[in-house]
Specification:
Structural class: alpha/beta
Radius of gyration: 18 Å
Strand content: 35-45%
Helix content: 25-40%
């Protein structure tokens, strides 16, 4: 996969380059010190995914993401949690809080690779008690309810985060939600459904699951707290 690094901090770019060097099959095709230079680069070049800083002068990473029409897969890198809600509204692949570890970066890159390579290969097949079946590469695979962390909307697809990996399933969020056990899964945002069994913490409009910030919209907060029997 080809990667574009975008960060106005030279030390941050060096750190990302060193970390990426440890990941096989990822090639850094360019490094940009601003969102503007990244925009100009992408007008004539393609990257599979971008490691994109959020806070940059002139144009932020979020503004760049909104500007791109045929955009690569986006992985935000930032020292601030406060942009998580807006970032996930844009259906980005991941949101890394600096400083992050190599294993955490690998997790994000693997998610990008899965989205890039497999988003058209799986469909929901059938559901039974505590179990979801999906069709993947002509094989029927089982996913247990208890292995699911959260589900994320992505247009006509949903991304299912499990204890082992991500799955990309060709279905809408509404259709998928109807197949889930409402005593275990709850919508917390128009783009997210979570397993209440996997919640680590709730703070400042975010739910932490598997060290990942999930946005909690005000319209769904009371429903979640009622389900958790809190407040």
């Amino acid at each position: 996969m080809t990667c574009l690094i975008v960060d106005d901090n030279a030390l941050a770019r060096i750190t990302l380059r060193q970390l990426i060097a440890n990941i096989d099959n990822v090639e850094i095709i360019e490094e940009c010190d601003s969102a503007t230079s990244a925009y100009n680069f992408l007008k004539n070049n393609k990257a599979d995914f971008i490691l994109l800083d959020v806070e940059m002068p002139e144009m932020t990473g979020i503004e760049l993401t909104k500007t791109l029409t045929d955009r690569p897969i986006i992985i935000f890198t930032t020292s601030q949690k406060k942009y998580a809600v807006e970032a996930f509204e844009l259906n980005v692949a991941d949101y890394l809080i600096k400083p992050f570890t190599l294993p955490r970066l690998i997790q994000a890159v693997e998610k990008a690779a899965l989205i890039l390579n497999n988003k058209n290969t799986e469909v929901v097949d059938t559901v039974s008690a505590e179990i979801l079946f999906i069709k993947e590469n002509k094989a029927i695979k089982k996913i247990k309810w208890d292995d699911i962390y959260y589900i994320e909307a992505m247009g006509d697809y949903v991304k299912i985060k499990t204890t082992s990996r991500f799955h990309i399933v060709h279905t809408t969020m509404k259709q998928f939600e109807e197949k889930l056990d409402a005593s275990i899964f709850v919508r917390v945002h128009r783009s997210y459904i979570i397993s209440i069994r996997k919640i680590e913490s709730i703070q400042e409009g975010n739910i932490t699951i598997n060290e990942t910030p999930i946005p909690l919209a005000d319209t769904y907060k009371s429903i979640l707290l009622k389900k958790l029997k809190v407040g």
